[in-house]
Amino acid sequence: MLLPLLIVFYLFFPSLVLYLCYRFPLINKIGAVIICYLVGMLVGNYIDFPPEAVQLQATFTDVTVAVALPFLLFSMDLKAWRHLAGKATLCMLLAVISIVVVALVGFLLIQDQAAYGWQLGGMAVGLYTGGTPNLAAIKTALQVNEDVYITMHTYDTVISLIYILFLCSVAQRLFNLFLPRFKKTGASLEDIPNGEVETEAIDSYAGIFRKEIIPPLLGALVIAAAVVGISLFISGLFPDDYATAAAILSITTLSIICSLVPQIRRIKKTFQAGMYLILIFCLVVGSMANLKQLFTRINWPIMFFVTFCIIVSLFFHAFLCKLFKIDTDTFIITSTSAICSPPFVPVVANALKNKEIILSGIYTGIIGYAIGNYLGITFAYILRALH
Length: 387
Fold this sequence. Notes:
Layout: H1 2-23, H2 25-30, H3 32-46, H4 53-74, H5 86-110, H6 117-127, H7 132-141, H8 146-169, H9 171-175, H10 214-235, H11 240-259, H12 262-265, H13 270-287, H14 291-296, H15 300-323, H16 328-339, H17 345-351, H18 358-386
Helix pairs in contact: 1-13, 3-13, 4-7, 4-10, 4-11, 4-13, 5-6, 5-15, 5-16, 5-18, 6-7, 6-18, 7-11, 7-18, 8-15, 8-17, 10-11, 11-18, 15-16, 16-18
């Protein structure tokens, strides 16, 4: 009886979270991703799951990630990237360079204490250029141990909350001391012609069940299923050690190719559907965490590595922005989209009292979604060769 209830909980609780975020600004500021993850942890630690739940959870995590990736990438508009300010794109490149350098140093510092350090490096590069979807995909591609993954994800949640609070409070004043101040141009989301920008704002889910939305969205589901099916076939052509990585990279590549087809790219609410699947994923992963084990038996190599990557990459990124004369607000919003992903862009932009930078944050975040898997998986195998 518990398994059917668990399935219903996994599938529909995120919708309740989205509703609460829509109704209550305070809950919205915390974020649906974090709420789903934390509630999942509470449920997982106060309810005794039957042994069969382990397989159910594994199925949910694999399926949600595989199908979410196409949905998240279908709405990409490569041509729209030319409307970004050059400094925003450059700033994202500097963010990527920062995390790659810092993750390499972090790996060298912990490699003797953690044999899985190369996997941590790959997940960190994917996570801190894109976000949770990339972390989940790379975890699957690299066949990361479940305990290692959950531990890293949990520590990342805690440190990222501290990081976001810093960005929303004193960061702007601090970085204004040595970075140029943002110069407003009056640009906004409406400046992008011939289409709308897909965001992760809570109110962007409104109307998703309208009759004109559902049929095309179901069509997108069929295309996503085809992408996953083709990718699984392609992965079967590779040795077992590389099959999963090949599947994830194939899903990413085929999804980007699909986004070049206007009829697919213009299907409304695909991005939101993908994020809903990620919320399910966060809920499931959270329910798999053992809080007592995580915080009574702290894994110091992972705790150090996550903290090192977030904090050091932030200040190294700021240093590079200083060299290239990138302003404070562009730096902060790009760092937000890279380290914490686009859901937090509107929150930080509001704290900075600068809605003009939301566009840059969203699109640099989508760039991160697109390249995170390639970077993370490639970086991990390079580290494994060095180990």
